[in-house]
Amino acid sequence: MSETMTQFITGGQFLVEPITEAKVYSREDFTEEHRDIYNMVMEFDRDRILAQKEEIEKYNPDLIKSLIKEMGELGLLGIDVPE
């Protein structure tokens, strides 16, 4: 029986360690679900973040809390945690 260990690249290690073709992942590899999430994030960024860039940079806590709440409602917080 063989065991496979997954090695995670940390920090800037990716700059000095060789990678294999199997480790490369790009938008061309997206599934339909990945594309839907990508499009949702890009739309949210364009419509909600970039549209209020100046106000965000002034650190308006109410606006930032509101945007974080919206991101949570869209399921974007903790998106890298499996269901």
Structure description:
This is Acyl-CoA dehydrogenase/oxidase N-terminal domain-containing protein. It comes from marine metagenome. InterPro entries: AcylCoA_DH/ox_N, AcylCoA_DH/ox_N_sf, AcylCoA_DH/oxidase_NM_dom_sf. GO terms for molecular function: flavin adenine dinucleotide binding; oxidoreductase activity, acting on the CH-CH group of donors. Helices cover 43% and strands 0% of the residues. The protein has 83 residues and is an all-alpha fold. It has a domain of 47 residues. The protein contains three helices and no strands. The two termini are 30 Å apart. The protein is extended and about 45 Å long. The longest helix has 18 residues.
Question: Could you give a quick summary of the protein structure above?
Answer:
By secondary structure, this protein is an all-alpha fold. The protein has three helices and no strands. The model has no long low-confidence stretch (mean pLDDT about 85).
Chain-averaged pLDDT: 83
Largest sheet, in brief, is: none
Structural class: mainly alpha
The portion of residues assigned to helices is 40-55%
Distance between the termini: 30 Å
Shape descriptor: extended
Query: Helical segment tally?
Result: 3
**Computed CA radius of gyration, to the nearest angstrom:** 18 Å
Uncertain parts? none
Oligomer: single chain
Number of strands: 0
Beta-sheet strand percentage? under 5%
The ordered string of helix (H) and strand (E) elements is HHH
Pfam family, one: Acyl-CoA_dh_N
Domain Acyl-CoA dehydrogenase/oxidase N-terminal: 31-83
InterPro entries: AcylCoA_DH/ox_N, AcylCoA_DH/ox_N_sf, AcylCoA_DH/oxidase_NM_dom_sf
Organism: marine metagenome
